[in-house]
Amino acid sequence: MKLLIVTQKVDRIDPVLGFFCRWIEEFAKHCDHVTVIGQYVGDHTLPSNVQVYSLGKEVGKNRVSQILRFWLLQWTLRNEYDQVFVHMTPIWVVMGWDKWMFMRKPVYLWYEARGKRWPLRVALKCVSKVFSASSVGMPLMTPKSVITGHGIDTADFADVQEDRQPYELITVGRITQSKRLEKILTCMRDLPQDYSCAVFGISLTEDDVRYRSELQKKIGQWGLNDRVKFHASVLQNALAIHLQRAALFLHTSTTALDKAVLEAMACGCIVVSTNSAVHTVLPEECRATDENFVGKVRTILEMSEEERQKLRERLRKEVVEHHSLSKLIERLVAEMQ
């Protein structure tokens, strides 16, 4: 199979989308040739059967220039691919479906989010299938939906069973209102002073920046300055180290099945979440509501080390069996063939 991938960013050092370079590597193992069109292309080292083309966002190209470049590449590279896989950006399906239909190139979309804007609605009419990690990740009903699980690199995200810090908690993700980080601050206020929480994430929009400022004010008002610290997003290998150290991963987001939750589970970091989408991969003792969130956290922190280790093993097993990167890419390739 010769595959065209259209994605937002090809940059292994990007703190949010750097993981996608590993997806491309895995696709390269199963395809004769992989062509990648990225809006933004940065640092990457990929197999010899992968060719990467940029739409120029990294050098400041505007949207019109990117679209024109996309149409040019779509046509001039037509003999280099026979299937199309669009990652998380249904607008590129909308922009390219008529030419792909004319060239008889089947189009597939990966979508794992809550947004229902018009590009997704139009894209669903154009694609052969739409893949999602969870049923919650595809917010619109469609017979084209295929639930595949996420793709976590379980070799990098591993439970090393060393240096676990019993009083260190962690959460990872964009600093935005849908993550409801104020719930985590409330939890920290109610826990003993020995416990601290590291928050890894970035603020992308002006609303995000205002939200982070509001959180910082609460941290000061509630006397949490020494116990809750914000950190910039880090590369995958560095993040794994932090997840391998932390006792608990706190999660109060209203988004779909967050990849960060599964990465924590793969590292043996026990997750407590209020999110119903995440509850589908968690045992009962890790499923919380807004009302009992602090109580669930306290219960796990008060478990014996033997009980916590059994829970860590169950969480990692869930990721290895149902959400590993290698199994995901094998499934996607089989579905496209």
What do you see in this structure?
- This protein has helices spanning 20-30, 63-76, 90-102, 118-126, 181-190, 206-221, 236-245, 259-266, 276-279, 293-301, 305-322, 325-336, and strands at 2-10, 33-41, 50-54, 83-87, 107-110, 129-132, 145-147, 165-172, 196-200, 228-231, 246-251, 270-273.
- The strands form 2 sheets. It has a 7-stranded parallel β-sheet with strand order 3-2-1-4-5-6-7, sandwiched between helices.
- It is α/β, with parallel strands linked by helices and 337 residues long.
How would you concisely characterize the structure shown here?
This protein is an alpha/beta fold and 337 residues long. The chain contains 12 helices and 12 strands. It folds into 2 domains: 2-152 and 324-336, 3-Layer(aba) Sandwich (Rossmann fold), CATH 3.40.50.2000; 165-322, Rossmann fold, CATH 3.40.50.2000.
